[in-house]
């Protein structure tokens, strides 16, 4: 059905749960067990929402509405839209859609639903069942996630007559990776083969829906996807989100999805959405704002939380406990006990974090070929000494720290940045608490 016929209505039609289920069931071929399973799953997931009215969250441009029905957040078009999406059902370019949605299909960890595998294999039937189960009608493209749909973030940017809205859910503490990292699976002939050299992908997805208030050419829609993707990578870089597949900063997750939508009719279509265009600026700002809010709500991932040595070296396999134990292994028992009792204070000291960040960045520059490999150990000793001074508060010990680190680096097989951070902390901590004790003793003696 073309636009002129479908858009004669002013609003959205809802069907009862019973009629929706009957309609969905009428499309099912006899004996199609897997297909029935997909429909059952979709209807069960939608069941709670079908018993209550959808909640209207917002209206955009007088052309689209955001609704939330339990675990389904849907953008419903009030007039024709052109959509470009990564969706398995109705993905790619589409000009016939009534909505795009973001659906929380499961919980992030340990929520095993066998029918989800069939839903992946039969996305059209799954989407149709999900839409019907929520009492809706029309063609849809859907994004799926395990992130809490209630953490959906909405950001809007405007300039003159342009407006852009970005809607995001985001979880990055499981499946984050960097472009070019080793893959988990090999897909061929409808099959997915687990790669032997790396484990399966872990949960984590960034879903982004971008709405623009003015028509765009097909090429501009593609460019909008590029701009929004760059915005996503920029947020992860700024937050130092680690890849789970390599010792690098992540640029996304393995299951990220996106949909960009613009009106099909109206003013002359815009032709660009890159950095030099106002539209591209708005897309970048809105996408970044929505993703920042989404990861903050889903993962408590905010700049202040990332100000920690353990967070910076997380991509090398550390957390705060492992960092403390690695440092404690080089300390006398009494100093190690003090560290364990005060590990968060040490881990989050801003000066210490700053120098650890500098050391890690230099190592990245060496890995990327910007700096020659030959300068790494010397630079690591210098920066490690500065880190030890920041911990100890004894600038006069800088050369001693540098010499000790240089000696250890010269004979060490493991000279990565995390190891240097551990060694530097181990050098500085004994002097830190000795200096504190000496200062207090001197004050008491003067009394």
TrEMBL record:
Name of the featured protein: Adenosylcobinamide amidohydrolase
Pfam families named among the record's database cross-references: CbiZ (PF01955)
Keyword Ribosomal protein: no
Keyword annotations of the record: Hydrolase
Key word Hydrolase present: yes
UniProt GO molecular function: hydrolase activity
Domain of life: Bacteria
